[in-house]
Amino acid sequence: MSRFFRAEIVSNLPLNNKNNLLTIKPLEPATEPDPGQFYMVEVSNSKTPLLSRPFSFFRKTPEGIQFLFEIRGKGTLMMKGFKGGEVIHMLGPLGRGYPELEDDKIPMLVAGGIGIASIFPLVQAFGKKACLFYGARDKEGLLMLDELKGLVGELIISTDDGSMGRRGTVIDVFMDFLMQTQAKACDYTIYACGRKQMLEVLSRTALNNGIKGYISTEENMACGIGACLGCAVKVKSKELRAKSRRIKNINSELRTLDYELMYKMVCKDGPVFPLEEIVW
Amino acid sequence: MNLSVNIGHLKLKNPVITASGTFGYGEEYAEFVDLNKLGAIVVKGISLKPMEGNPSPRICETPCGMLNAIGLQNVGLKDFLKKKLPYLRRFSTPVIVNVLANTIQGYVRLSTALDDSGVDGIELNVSCPNVKKGGISFGTDKKTLAKLVSKVRQSVKGSVLITKLSPNVSNIQEFSKIAEDSGSDALSLINTIPAMAIDIETRKPRLANITGGLSGPAIKPIAIRMVWESYNTVKIPIIGMGGIMNADDVIEFMLAGATAVAVGTANFVNPKATIEIIEGIEQYLRRKGINDVKEIIGKLHAA
Question: In a designed cystine with B195, which of A42, A161, B69, B214 is the match (CB 3.0 to 4.6 A)?
Fold first, then answer.
């Protein structure tokens, strides 16, 4: 069983003019993905675009593995042209997905736009226990709403322009929720995926309110397996700090901190990190 | 069929090597590639102390290629010897270590330690475009290059000494000759080409480091030309690299004069690229009725 395998395009369904639902079927025995893991998808077997593109897996169905993708650039534009029956190379599942929920916690899922792809397997896993905040710039950016409605305990929709659900960012809505909720903030565990700015604000808000959780990060990457070292993300590492405490000559400015700053790789150490680890 | 080639006193099972910085420390690819089947493994550039690398974005895609400015993130000499090398030693494939320092003394210390540890080859990286000190500044100044290679030569006994040249010089022949005359056993060329890309919407450079090194098929014709020019100047073997994606590219490099080749960016696109390339070389030789791969080295019909 190899994580580098050939797959047949089963279908490539446009959801609107910006987003597609891609279903692929591995033509070789393939490893099962965990929520939050991703695949490198070969866009073209010619030399341009050269690199494969990383996508979180969205859902497993009897037909195959599904991905949601937003048409953003050259690579995704070419993927829009994928036709049923075509065969592509895929690499995955890759990276570390979302950790399991501790027994007494309530999962609070936060998805921005296409970030729902990474969050969806958690929706399936947590079901009615979960509360999902799902926001986008406009209603075009909100995908798979019919599927989501029946699955989660509470679904709170928002759009920046107010074209669907509440007007405002997913963070605004999240803050309102925190003000009103009966439960203690520390009863929740956040699982989030979305644009960098959203994740930054969410992480700061969560930390200020004493909520722990996990976010799925994104960087340009080439290999997907920790070899090119392209997808670096700066983190506060407590493990490394513990080690360097034993070394005498450390920078005096850093001596007061209980962590060390270092780069980790989105593809191998992530894409999911505890939200308190990321340096913004 | 004989695929073996020699780089100095080092015998390779076949001419296919991994390019430094594209194959991690080998273990990253063990799941996809039988490491025993490779000609040699060149690991990510090693420095005396660990280096944390550059901020993101470190890479971006360009037409038929990519830019990188990783900034030589590596575990440092001590951890390499302790944690990475023992793993690679479990395979029969020669291990070549790419080294980088910001002083000649640093290169000497690194090379001595690695030579003592019994690595099969040392590749002097005098051509990294992405660090402020060292790297390319050694590879683009003739006197410094001569001094560096001679000094390292004195302390390297068992390992094959390879100099990785920069394409960022006006005359690759001069630099090839200097490396040879200073005692290098082999040359590897080319390293990535300093390059840049801009996002016109944000007006920001696509790399946090602003500039980076261009690799991939886009640079192959430049690399082929430099291998050819270098081949016509020196007697020592050349490891050719730059945009190799398949066996056809390897044949092209070998016809231009490369004794061996390094596969780099292709590993990112297809983790099994090296193995598929070795199979492809065999098919080409069979199709042409050639029994020994060495027969094609430099056999370009130029006239």
Answer: B214
